[in-house]
Amino acid sequence: MKALKNAKILKVPILGDVVVSAGRTVLGIVLGLIASGILIAITGVNPFFAYGSLLRGAFGSAQAFSNVLVRSSPLLLGGIGVAIGIKAGVWNTGIEGYMYLGAIGAAIVGVLDLGLPPVLHVLLCFVFAAIFSGFWGFIPGYLKAYKGVNEVTATIMLNYIAIYLTNWVVSNFSLVAEVGAFYPMSKQFQASALLPILMPGSSLHPGPFIGILLCLLLYFILNYTPFGYRTKMLGSNPFAARYAGVDSKRQIMMIIMIGAVIGGISGAIEIMGLKRRVFMEFVTGVGYESVAVALLAGGNPIGVVLSALFFAALKAGGATMSIETGVASSINSIIIAMCMLFVIGVGVVDSHRLKKVVDTDKDNEAEEATKTPAIKEDK
Question: What is the largest CA-CA distance in the chain?
């Protein structure tokens, strides 16, 4: 075990996984920002001034920061829905579809005057959102677990079905649709079904804080419960998990359905807190951004919080950067892509380094095993 003894391994009590994962992510983001800064400089703009404008647009005032939080809400919930799948070795790319189904479920009861107090009406909307999205997640979950269908293909195809289904509901389903509207949309939600605004003069609703609490809860579940242990075991080594008695099919199905329910609640929050009604294609692209958030976080629930805020800050501050510096608005997408590439690259380099250490250790053990010690004969 000489190689492993000589290798430098960082040990941090309790939060070791968070520290190591966050360290890789931060290093990748810094490298990505440097590379993006070089591209900005090539266009003739001072990158320090550009990044300063971006920071002012995102954090320059309480209103600006509230905008960051609002934009982070669907990314937090969508990101954690993808991240829990990553821990199980499952790529749940159906967040966008789950958001649409969750919005439909919430709208069915949210547009009706049921005479309920706000707390009960909001909870009922969440329950219907969870039921609809959970059913939608059951389809790829069953296909993946019991039929061996690739989950990425199944969830992406279902995303398109969910989008067109939502478009039909807000256009033709009389219970929900606003008939004769200039744009396909649902009826406005009842006041009792809406989330409260936390900061006057802004759009800040409880969604971001619900997302952060859920990230913390799932971090605890993944690290300190039998369910979390089975999930991580399945993601690390599915053969060993099955040998240890884990019902992998049931676990995979549960993981996909949990991600679906979280995605559905995310869609409901977006409608009940910000949009006030369901519009056709109201979250285009957000589901796929959630996949990027989870990847940038390395599947770590705590990392999802930082990653979602980072994405939201880029989106919120990008407009200010474009106005003040003349940089193309597409630079935000370039910055995100650069950061993701470097985060992935740092992870690959680190895994190769660890593999090299393990391989060296195996070689040393094999070499020692081939040596035959001299035996002294007693005279």
Answer: 109
